[in-house]
Amino acid sequence: MSGMERLQRMLGIYQVGAGFFAGPGEAWDQPGFRRYFPEMDREEFVLEYDFLFRGTDADVEMVLWASGCSGRGNVLWDGTTLEVIKTYYSWGYRPVKMEGNPPDYLGEMFRFLAYLTSAGIHCQKQGEDPAGPLAAAEAFIRNYVLSTAVTVAGCIRACRKDSPFLAVVERLARALEDAGGVAAGDLERSEAGSDPAFFEDPAVTPIFPEVIRRGPNPPIPLEEERTVNTAGINNCGGCCVIRAVVREGCLLRIETDAPGNSPQLRACVRGRGYRNTFLSGGRLKYPMKRIGERGGGKFARISWQEAADLAAGQWKRIKDTYGVGSRYVNYATGVTGIMRPGRLAMRLLALDGGYLGYYNSYSSACANYVTPYLYGTAFCGNSPADLLNTNFLILWGHNPAETIFGPELNGYLGQLKRKGVPITVIDPRLSNTAAAFADCWIPIRPSTDSALADGMAYVILSEGLEDRAFMDRYCLGFDEEHMPEGFPEGESYTSYLFGKKDGIHRTPEWAERITGVPAQTIRSLARQYAAAKPACLLAGLGAQRTGNGEQVVRGQIMLACLTGNVGRPGGGAAGSGWIREHGGIGLFNQPANPYPGRIPVFQWAKAVERGTEFDREHDGLTGVSRLESNIKMILNLAGNTLVNQHSDINQTTRLLRDETKCEFILCSDLFMTPSARYADLLLPATSVFEGDNIVNPWIGGSYLLRNNQVIEPLFGCRFEWEWLKEVADRLGYYREFVDGKEETESWLRENYEIMRKREPELPDYETFSAAGGWRYRDGRVRVAFREQIADPENHPFPTHSGKIEIFSPDLYRLGRPEEIPAIPRHTPCPEGPEDPLTQRYPLQLVGWHTRRRCHSIHDNNQWMDEVEAPALWIHPEDAGARGIGQGDLVEVFNDRGKVRIPALVTERIMRGVTAMSQGGWYRPDRQGTDTRGSINVLTDGDHPSPLAKGNPQHTNLVEVQRAGN
Questions:
Q1: Which among 383, 527, 699, 793 could bridge 782 via Cys, Cβ 3.0 to 4.6 Å?
Q2: Residues 604-613: contacts with CB within 8 Å, 24+ apart?
Q3: Backbone phi, then psi, for 8, in 5-degree steps?
């Protein structure tokens, strides 16, 4: 074979590879391929091609990029991508980004080899030595292309070993071996040889005729490295500063807040791992519609126009058939900037007649709902900086070292620790927060926190340690003398504590039997809290995500009042803890929802099944007396609560598989999450790096952050605003929906300017955007209720009585004293430690917000397994009684399901309690046993909290056994 013949043959091979990976249409149109797919017509070929190479099969994992073969994880647009771009540019080649793929995509690399070979042919025709471009091609094959082709073949073999596509890729890899002069050790030897006839196509024409005629283009200069100031946008307590270092569209590294800033808004391990999470090759790539049964994970690729047609058609059909109240936007917090996908969808639904709304959240339902019964508002938190004024801190069910409860808080805790201020942590686990900051760890049985509060209050009152003047002046109903008129004797809080009606004194010994906390520990804690002036009880949200969560919150508020720490610098009012520092920014001037019906957010699955049976008392329905329809359409945008984050996953998935119940599910997300598998229409969204937004601080904080676009959207991904505009157009609401602002930037600017009128310290929009945010400089430290305590006559509490309502007339009138008492007191709940079900399932199970995830975000990031691998925490005595050793694979089970997970045997958890971090992606085996540590397989979905109807996801009973027993 002459030199020119070899070059022509190699050109044909590379053009075949480029054409094959350009897309299914291009691949099918190459006649040489047809004989390898004799059983397929064009439609079947395209479907199988997309299953393998375009992410339409949830069970196929494919790596198609050189960056994914670099040994640093399947991360796109990284340093490897930049090295490939440098090679391209040195030869004057500008990538075409096939179907939105990064430049190191296998098809693009084949195309570059065709370019180099065309340059070699040019040299040959000119009588010049083609060694330069040919040596570059050989090196490129060795460094990038062959390993990528071998990896693709391995991925196909792992999931579709009988696929005819495997033979095509293996033959391409064989040809690369020959051309690169190197053997692919990882390529299985099969009957698929390089087969010269496979690449011979007399009809093929060069794709770079100009290069053959004139030679390669001149080198292309590389852009300089630059830093983009941006911020996180998901529901993470960090809300951190991100400095993204980019070059030629490649995200090279992530830096964070400068060391000189105090307190720092710096990224934790999650923020530092954003590249591996959000730029994963597992991203959803193109719009898809479901084929096969719902939940089966099989989809067909469609265009964005087809997706908008389908969405608009179902939107209108369901409205016309069942009414506007049949449409529901599911709770989701994957994007919590002001341009939040769910709220944008609600905007369009409101213009189209309305939708079934929700109230509460999965995070803080009980705290947010019940705190206003006592204070008249949920804004009862002090600025984080006020912690520096306290003399004693109780972190009750609070784990900021892992949750990052605002990026400022841990810095202040460190300062307290260095000052020698005593810190006590109450938690069933010795959390990282307890290990790092606590002088005292008090383990407690889950769902018994209100009993501990009662026991502490008993000590404070019986020993005369209360702030009597505070209680007399500011509180209603704590004793018989301060009860409102018209209520029977014996209904006050002190009457309950001292057993006036039932003869039971809520002593520390009484509390010990319920909580497992020794009576002497309860006495010591109560005395220390009452004596330290001021003292802060800083409640996390974990203890209120229980079957009696409202009573936990009320008991904690009662202790804050009893000791006079409300409205006092260095103190704390407990409760929901929302902080009024600087006004938050949101989408102003949103249209009101014309449909008044609302349900508790945790009750959505029940509303799919029996929504027309809902009422106020049992289900929390508000706004209407009855729903006109069950939920028939769900929009699940930027969230995983449809399946993974909702209780009782097996029950939920059974419900969703029944297409006669919810008739249309639209999901928009970054990945094929457990929720996305159940979509009828699945749309690929943009990540934190691919768009613009404005981000409020977490709970409270003296800053406002800007999320700036770092790279172009991947593949065919779109921010939800873009396709919602197309749906609005089809529904006839385009003009009203965009309101003169077609681009997100216009919305951000307009809302920022509204915010500036409220906060004149804010700089102009350009300065704010370029800096990636703004730190307020007024230095004010807010103390909730300072004005009410200083001047109660002119600044009463916003309650009916103008006082803190320890006794709630509103709750008394509900007439449900055992479930919803009028006063703070312990109430047993289903699957708590007092439930007879403990005879069958003797261990309690709680979750926690792990440092490796933000809810379920980052579970696809395998590097986070090095931070914290999935495991069940179990006490040595509980493990020993079951023959369980360290690292043993165990099965955690109850009537709802089963999880198989390694055991972490540790004294860092209370005896009788087990723990599993929340957020692991549901991954069942063929028998339905979860294998990834998805706690919601086991959590209770049938017993929401009595008043708020909040999620009881920390109130669960289980048993544990060694796997295989």
A1: 383
A2: 604/328, 604/330, 604/331, 604/358, 604/631, 604/634, 604/646, 605/646, 605/651, 605/652, 605/655, 605/941, 607/328, 607/356, 607/631, 608/634, 608/655, 608/656, 608/661, 608/662, 609/655, 609/661, 611/356
A3: -65, -40
DSSP 861-923: -TTHHHH----EEE-HHHHHHTT--TT-EEEEEETTEEEEEEEEE-TTB-TTEEEE-TTPPP-
Residue 875 to residue 862: CA distance in whole angstroms: 27
Nearest to 738 by CA among 721, 716, 759, 760: 721
Beta bridge partners of 255: 243
What residues contact 736, with CB distance under 8 A and at least 6 apart? 351, 728
* Number of other residues whose CB lies within 10 A of the CB of residue 35: 9
Contacts (Cβ under 8 Å, ≥6 apart) of 881? none
pLDDT in tens, 279-315: 999 999 999 999 999 999 999 999 999 999 999 999 9
Question: What is the reported pLDDT for 184?
Answer: 53
What are the φ/ψ torsions at residue 500 (nearest 5 degrees)? Answer: -65, -35
Lowest mean pLDDT among 240-244, 449-453, 905-909: 240-244
Work out the number of other CB atoms within 10 angstroms of the CB of residue 262.
Answer: 8
**C-alpha dist (Å) from residue 90 to 34, 95, 238:** 37, 12, 41
Amino acid occupying residue 34 = R
Instruction: Output Rg (C-alpha) for the chain, integer angstroms.
Output: 31
Distances (CA, A) of 252 to 102, 291, 793: 14, 38, 59
* Per-residue pLDDT, 189: 47
Helix (H, G, I), strand (E, B) or coil at 317: helix
Could you give the C-alpha distances from 199 to 17, 33, 37, 98, 175, in angstroms and in order?
9, 9, 15, 21, 9
Query: Residue 124 and residue 851: Cα distance in Å, rounded?
Result: 60
Bin 355: left if φ > 0, else alpha if -120 < ψ < 50, else beta.
beta
Q: Are 236 and 215 in contact (CB under 8 A)?
A: no
Q: What is the rounded CA–CA span in Å between residue 270 and residue 402?
A: 10
Could you read off the pLDDT of 386-442 as tens digits, one per residue? 999 999 999 999 999 999 888 889 999 999 999 999 999 999 999 999 999 999 999
φ, ψ at 499 (rounded to 5°): 65, 35
* Alpha carbon distance 600, 413 (integer Å): 34
Digit-coded pLDDT (tens) for 894-952: 999 999 999 999 999 999 999 999 999 999 999 999 999 999 999 999 999 999 999 99
Strands 693-695 and 703-707, bridge-based pairing: antiparallel
Complete DSSP assignment for 438-493: -SEEE---TT-HHHHHHHHHHHHHHTT-S-HHHHHHHEESSSGGGPPTTS-TT-SH
513 token code pair? 């039997």
| DSSP tag of 339 | S
Q: Rounded distance, CA 675 to CA 430, Å?
A: 32
The three-state secondary structure class of 521 is helix
Q: Is 765 exposed, middle or buried (0-12, 13-18, 19+ CB in 10 A)?
A: middle
Cβ(341)–Cβ(335) below 8 Å: yes
Q: Which of 534, 533, 580, 573 is nearest to 556 (CA)?
A: 573
Task: Report the number of secondary-structure helices (H) and strands (E) in the chain.
Answer: 34, 26
Q: What is the dihedral of CA 374, 379, 380, 381, to 10 degrees?
A: 160
The number of CA neighbours under 13 Å toward the Cβ of 735 is 1
Cα-based distances in Å from 850 to 411, 560, 856, 858: 19, 28, 10, 11
92: phi then psi, degrees, rounded to nearest 5: 75, 20
DSSP 156: H
Torsion 280-284-286-292 (CA) sign = positive
CA-nearest of 381, 425, 379 to 401 is: 425
Tokens of 85: 């771009």
Rounded CA-CA distance 544/555 in Å is: 11
